[in-house]
């Protein structure tokens, strides 16, 4: 198979938003306990945080971390998680049918976030709670001192305010599974009132209203329109959540999951802009895609027996293979390509729970296949996102009809002169030779594999591929699926030619 595309610095979409590379830490399964926090672990620091997980979080290149849920937040009392640990109550977590010991709360999380060098993004409970509790949490976190709750934070050991900017107004309130689930009108009113009052405390907050839990929700589209009719002038973002999985052995459809994400984003942008037009507003609402990932939900064993009330049970611990990483790479390409309107995103989640990082309690921590596309995109996407408009063969899928075999996006950093192309080959059995016209980048010298395009004249190609699309990494074999140098890249005239193996994620750097 062959394909071609053109790189031109004039084809700008928007700047790369660092917040595209957010993730998510929920009190769910082993994400917090034995994930980021395990005081008895050999690598634990003075605060009980696993140093190995902190290191991997940095390597992953995470910008923002959403906390503390997810479904969990809709039953959460944040006050349970502050003060001396030995006095904190254990509570039933109805969302995940677990026991929450509250050993980690907002103070520990912010301490962890500082160590991991990530921006905390907080969610407030709009399920069992409402406006007053949201204001209390905001006061506790962001007011420097001199009020009951800010002084309580200081008494609990945090002299400086947390300065948390991004706040989610509840979680998935469209979902019947959500504790305190609401109609769009009920939720829209509540979100508007909570947002209005939170802005009275700090008008520079960035507030996220809940959009749909997936594009297949029966209320999709109508939910966003109604919520924004109520809350448009009070919020900055509407959220999107989407999880994908291979169903019925249909790998071709699965690798094209980004088709749904593209459609999801375009539909929510159109809906938000339509509401904005009707309100005669000049303001634009952006998208916070604050839950996205591969999740084998259909294989998920139901929980819910009375005996399930345990601390940090093994829940949602999906093990990812190469094809999952390639599908996830496609989702990253989709998010980047929509950088003009998707200005924040969170891979759900960070550790153990549908996560790129896996830990053994008391033992090793390792990288799943999906770690690699995320880490590479976070590391190398810089400057401006460029449209690339590939011309390539299509294939038929049961889920989405005809889909291009190649999906791609590029970024260009004017300051460093570096251009990076991210590509997936969705063909399950054929390699794809891609010709990239790079003449518009300037300074193209004909030459060999390394030595022609970009300021320093180097071309580097890596590929994530395997003879088995279902190959996985494990604790004992953590390097089975990792990015490797792709020798099949060359430069001739103004064209970079690269061969992408079937089912592969590829990064080409011109620098
Ligand atoms: O990320 C796992 C769960 O998926 C979250 O708790 C919820 O918001 C979503 O349904």
Strand order of the largest sheet: 3-4-7-8-9-10-11-12
**Which residues form runs of ≥5 with pLDDT under 50?**
444-452
SS element count, helices: 10
Rounded to the nearest angstrom, the radius of gyration is: 23 Å
CATH superfamily of the largest domain: Glycosidases
Q: On the 0-100 scale, what is the average pLDDT?
A: 95
Relative strand content: 15-25%
**Biggest sheet descriptor:** 8 strands, parallel, barrel
Bound molecules: alpha-L-arabinofuranose
Number of strands: 25
Ends: how far apart? 27 Å
State the name of the first-level CATH class of the largest domain: Alpha Beta
Q: What spatial form do the alpha-carbon principal axes imply?
A: globular
Can you tell me the CATH topology of the largest domain?
TIM Barrel
> Which bin fits the share of residues in helices?
10-25%
Q: Domains counted in the coordinates: how many?
A: 2
Q: What CATH architecture of the largest domain would you give?
A: Alpha-Beta Barrel
Structural category: alpha/beta
EC number: 3.2.1.55
Protein name: non-reducing end alpha-L-arabinofuranosidase
Family: Belongs to the glycosyl hydrolase 51 family.
Subunit structure: Homohexamer; trimer of dimers.
């Amino acid at each position: 198979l062959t394909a071609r595309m053109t790189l031109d610095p004039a084809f700008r979409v928007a700047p790369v938003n660092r917040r595209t590379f957010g993730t998510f830490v929920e009190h769910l399964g082993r994400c917090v306990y034995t994930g980021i926090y395990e005081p008895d672990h050999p690598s634990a620091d003075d605060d009980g945080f696993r140093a190995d997980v902190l290191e991997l979080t940095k390597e992953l290149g995470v910008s923002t971390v959403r906390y503390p849920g997810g479904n969990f937040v809709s039953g959460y009392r944040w006050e349970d998680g502050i003060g001396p640990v030995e006095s904190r109550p254990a509570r039933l977590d109805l969302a995940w049918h677990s026991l929450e010991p509250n050993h980690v709360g907002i103070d520990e999380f912010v301490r962890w976030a500082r160590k991991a060098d990530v921006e905390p993004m907080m969610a407030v409970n709009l399920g069992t709670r409402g406006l007053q509790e949201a204001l209390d949490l905001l006061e506790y976190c962001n007011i420097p001192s001199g009020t009951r709750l800010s002084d309580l934070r200081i008494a609990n050991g945090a002299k400086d305010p947390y300065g948390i900017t991004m706040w989610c107004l509840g979680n998935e309130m469209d979902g019947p599974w959500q504790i305190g689930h609401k109609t769009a009108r009920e939720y829209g009113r509540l979100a508007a009132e909570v947002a209005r009052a939170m802005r009275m405390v700090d008008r520079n907050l960035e507030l996220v209203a809940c959009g749909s839990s997936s594009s297949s929700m029966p209320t999709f589209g109508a939910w966003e329109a109604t919520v924004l009719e109520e809350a448009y002038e009070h919020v900055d973002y509407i959220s999107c959540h989407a999880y994908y999985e291979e169903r019925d052995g249909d790998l071709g459809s699965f690798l094209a999951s980004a088709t749904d994400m593209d459609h999801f984003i375009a539909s929510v942008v159109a809906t938000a802009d339509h509401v904005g037009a009707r309100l005669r507003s000049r303001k634009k609402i952006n998208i916070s895609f604050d839950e996205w990932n591969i999740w084998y939900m259909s294989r998920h064993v139901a929980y819910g027996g009375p005996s399930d009330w345990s601390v940090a049970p093994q829940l949602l611990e999906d093990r990812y293979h190469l094809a999952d990483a390639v599908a996830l790479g496609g989702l990253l390409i989709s998010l980047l390509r929509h950088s003009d309107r998707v200005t924040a995103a969170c891979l759900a989640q960070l550790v153990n729970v549908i996560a790129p990082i896996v830990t053994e309690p008391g033992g090793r921590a390792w990288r799943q296949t999906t770690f690699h596309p995320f880490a590479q995109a976070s590391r190398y996407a810089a400057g401006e996102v460029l449209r690339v408009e590939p011309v390539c063969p299509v294939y038929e899928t049961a889920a989405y009809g005809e889909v291009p075999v190649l999906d791609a996006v590029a970024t260009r950093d004017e300051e460093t002169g570096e251009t990076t192309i991210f590509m997936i080959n969705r063909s399950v059995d054929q390699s794809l030779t891609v010709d990239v016209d790079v003449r518009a980048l300037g300074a193209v010298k004909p030459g060999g594999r390394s030595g022609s395009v970009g300021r320093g004249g180097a071309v580097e190609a890596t590929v994530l591929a395997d003879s088995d699309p279902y190959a996985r990494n494990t604790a004992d074999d953590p390097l089975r699926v990792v990015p490797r140098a792709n020798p099949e890249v060359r430069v001739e005239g103004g064209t970079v030619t690269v061969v992408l193996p079937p089912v592969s994620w590829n990064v080409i750097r011109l620098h």
